[in-house]
Design brief:
- The protein has 13 helices and 16 strands.
- By secondary structure, the chain is of the alpha/beta class.
- Strands 3, 4, 5, 6, 7, 8, 15 and 16 form an 8-stranded mixed sheet that branches.
- Strand 15 (about 415-420), helix 13 and strand 16 (about 440) form a beta-alpha-beta unit.
- Helix 5 packs across helix 6 (about 250-260) and helix 5 packs across helix 12 (about 390-405).
């Protein structure tokens, strides 16, 4: 067990955050004022094939590598040397992330190589690029190949293959980083065969990370696993109302559908643009609040005067306090992101953005233990990228999700397909707040 040593700070700040800030400011300065020096900000790795960098040979791995914290310029499409794949940080018995050894490796019994044909883009990937994603810094560092979701075919299996996978099987699943790649080594427990009802790999890649995040959030809220045969919630409180921020987004779209499956209601979805209202209703919301045209919390009170049993919040500073205040007695606030703490629609983080982020961080609400007790409320948070040692938990959830997909109870969110060469545009789109559903990148 690791020693819980007190982390040292500089001026009250984590030194790694200050280094990330410095790296981003340098990127901003160079790109803005002296772009001819930009190549000096793009470190390469020994695993990259510098002599054949633009190769499109299908037997060679192509991936998006981030060499250091910074702006869009850090998203480099590279070709790796022969026989090198990307790999997640929880496959240390093969190699440390992000790449397999250049001199080859023996595929262990619990892993396969996936020819990855599609991966999804999550907002977390932008924070990885900025140098602000804690698990990426802690377990991988730089260079890093970001991404969690994969969908493709089994390319190779171990000599002793005890899994139910064979070469050529259509699969989808998660890796703990390394998904922005055409070839990934992944433990079999993190993969499932793609159901027949999903024809396109791009649709399959839109499911894993966001659906498991949604289901684990509902688990923390006390609604999963169910306690009866029909799969309905085990939650016995009379109040089963739920408010879901960003209800038309990646995680939100699955939270709405799963809340409907588990018998919760009313389901109140919040969206930030009028263009997302119809999608939120289509997914299953009973009430949709368009905060661009109406006061969010007045509308929330009108929808559920007694307060909400559960509020799902990935916004951060802009809504956390009000979300907590809007809980009913015995209510639970589940936190899984801090989008509003970060700049919206910014390709690069200039010095002013770091000042704004610091100010927002100082305004984050503090929850008093006595108030939690007296008001009978709970605040719970999580990040699945830290769950390397909890694979059985996630595996059980993946099985439930697969069952719902196969029974057509869960549907694929709206998918926007893009090419690897346009990865910077994908990052720009997801950080703009304008995307609906999922952005998926095809590797071929």
């Amino acid at each position: 067990m690791e020693n819980n040593k007190q982390r040292w700070t500089i001026l009250g700040q984590d030194p790694e955050i200050l280094l990330a800030a410095l790296a981003n400011v340098i990127s901003w300065f160079v790109v803005t004022f002296c772009p001819r020096f930009l190549p000096y900000l793009l470190p390469s790795s020994p695993e990259e094939d510098q002599d054949d960098a633009n190769s499109v040979d299908s037997t060679r791995t192509r991936c998006i590598s981030i060499g250091r914290p910074g702006g869009m310029e850090q998203l480099r499409l590279v070709t790796l040397k022969k026989n090198i794949c990307t790999i997640g940080y929880n496959v240390k018995h093969v190699s440390p992330a992000p790449y397999t050894p250049a001199d080859g490796f023996s595929l262990p019994e619990d892993c396969v190589v996936v020819k990855n044909l599609a991966f999804s883009v999550n907002y977390a990937d932008c924070t990885i690029r900025w140098g602000l994603y804690e698990s990426a810094k802690k377990f991988v560092g730089y260079p890093i190949v970001p991404g969690f979701d994969v969908a493709g075919t089994i390319e190779s299996v171990p000599k002793t293959n005890n899994s139910n996978f064979s070469v050529g099987d259509r699969v989808f699943g998660c890796t703990l980083f390394g998904a922005y790649s055409s070839r990934v080594v992944i433990p079999t427990i993190q993969l499932r065969k793609i159901p027949d009802c999903i024809e396109k790999f791009s649709k399959a890649a839109s499911f894993p990370a966001v659906s498991m995040t949604a289901l684990y959030a509902l688990h923390l809220a006390g609604y999963f696993p169910g306690g009866v045969d029909d799969g309905a919630s085990r939650h016995k409180f009379k109040n089963k109302s739920i408010l879901i921020h960003s209800a038309a987004g990646g995680v939100g779209s699955f939270l709405v559908q799963m809340a409907k499956i588990l018998g919760l209601g009313p389901i109140v979805g919040v969206v930030g643009r009028s263009s997302k209202v119809d999608e939120a209703y289509r997914l299953g919301c009973d009430v949709v609040i368009d905060k661009s045209t109406e006061d969010l919390w007045s509308a929330a009170t009108k929808a559920c005067p007694a307060g909400f049993s559960t509020i799902m919040d990935a916004n951060g500073v802009s809504t956390l306090k009000e979300s907590y205040d809007s809980l009913a007695p015995s209510g639970r606030l589940v936190v899984f992101g801090f989008h509003s703490n970060l700049p919206l629609g910014q390709a690069m983080l200039n010095p002013l953005e770091w000042i704004r982020m610091a100010r927002k961080q100082s305004n984050m609400p503090k929850f008093d233990a006595m108030d939690l007790t007296v008001s009978n409320k709970s605040v719970l948070g999580f990040n699945l990228s830290f769950f390397a040692e909890e694979r059985e938990v996630l595996s059980d959830m993946f099985d439930q999700i697969l069952e719902w997909i196969s029974n057509e109870k869960l549907e694929c969110p709206n998918v926007v397909e893009m090419e690897m060469e346009n990865i910077a545009l994908a990052h720009e789109f997801i950080s703009s707040g304008k995307s609906i559903g999922k952005i998926v990148v095809k590797t071929e």
